[in-house]
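dumping this here before i forget
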Amino acid sequence: MTAFIFDGDGNLKTRQMAPGRRTLEKRSTKYSTMVLDARQLTESDRVVIGVNQAQRTDEDKWWSAEIESAAKEAAKKPKQP
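structure:
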């Protein structure tokens, strides 16, 4: 997981990644915790969180993607009430 923090004008201020995980065993669950401690948030900041890697059951290969451009597009959308 990666969290992106944008200011009110849509400028990327911080990118923070959750710690990596090892292979997940079948029918088990792992939870990730992410503490956003890179900078103090303001009312106009936007936080966009995305999944940038995953692994299928019984496979050694990981899927991964660069998600920063998608996060930038999401930060441009109007805030929900």
